[in-house]
Design brief:
Layout (H helix, E strand, L loop, with lengths): L3 H5 L7 H18 L4 H8 L14 H34 L12 H20 L7 H14 L5 E2 L4 E3 L2 E3 L3 E3 L4 E8 L4 H16 L5 E8 L6 H9 L4 E7 L1
Parallel strand pairs: 5-6, 6-7
Antiparallel strand pairs: 1-4, 2-3, 4-5
Helix pairs in contact: 2-3, 5-6
């Protein structure tokens, strides 16, 4: 995220590139460091434009545009320093020690650990190309057992809109339901989108946090767009793991 600021200097505030970087960076800081962290709060406070008064000798729109541009570049430098320091902090303290959420505590830290298992560990324990979703579920279960995170597998039954839904994994103490999806063929991406939308409505009636892990064999082309379409909801997390 820090390196990406170099190229953004040639763009404008809230351009497509800047907006995508903002979403990715904000999501990273929120999930890893928490909403109460200095990193997330500092990033959220950036305005990307001049906010003070000014005296214009000439066209005020031209003057304001110049001031906005200068403010945008200064704040890119600020954001770069912020992400560099955040990376140093994460390396020193470790992922379990840096989270500062609104309800910071063992539960919040454990959710971050579950995310880390999906993002950093799942691919490593699947040594050969999987043939079924069950293989991925089994691998994720092994990671949860190894991390000593209490969970139940396929035991919860949630009735919603005349249908019964069963999350792959539930963690009651974390108020978390986790679902594994397998993207293994053309056309599966659209099916997964529909499935996740249905699951969100059902699981959200009982759980405050929802995690969807999609194991992809190369059929999801735009990961950022795929994830962003779901994570506009604050309680929903989506991770795409590439084989």
């Amino acid at each position: 995220m820090a390196e990406a600021t170099k190229g953004l200097g040639q763009r404008s505030a809230y351009s497509e590139e800047h907006t995508r970087w903002l979403f990715r960076g904000g999501r990273f800081l929120q999930e890893v460091f928490g909403e109460n962290s200095k990193y997330y709060r500092s990033m959220s406070a950036l305005t990307w434009a001049h906010t003070g008064t000014f005296i214009a000798y000439g066209d005020p729109n031209i003057v304001k545009g110049r001031l906005d541009r200068e403010a945008y570049k200064r704040q890119l430098d600020t954001a770069r320093g912020l992400f560099l320091d955040a990376a140093d902090h994460l390396k020193r303290a470790g992922i379990d020690a840096v989270y500062e959420g609104k309800d910071t505590g063992p539960e919040s830290s454990a959710i971050v650990r579950v995310l880390n298992l999906a993002e950093a560990k799942l691919r490593k324990v699947i040594r050969r190309r999987p043939e079924s979703e069950r293989e991925i579920q089994d691998a994720f279960e092994s990671l949860l057992v190894g991390a000593e995170i209490p969970f139940s597998r396929e035991t919860e039954r949630i009735e919603y809109s005349s249908k019964t839904y069963t999350p792959d994994f539930t963690m009651s103490k974390l108020d978390l339901a986790t679902e594994i999806k397998f993207s293994n063929r053309e056309g599966r991406e659209k099916e997964i989108i529909a499935e996740i939308n249905d699951d969100i409505l059902a699981y959200g009636t009982k759980y405050g946090n929802l995690l969807f892990v999609i194991y992809d064999l190369g059929f999801i082309r735009d990961m950022d767009r795929f994830v962003r379409s779901f994570e506009e909801r604050q309680t929903v997390l989506v991770r795409v793991v590439k084989h």
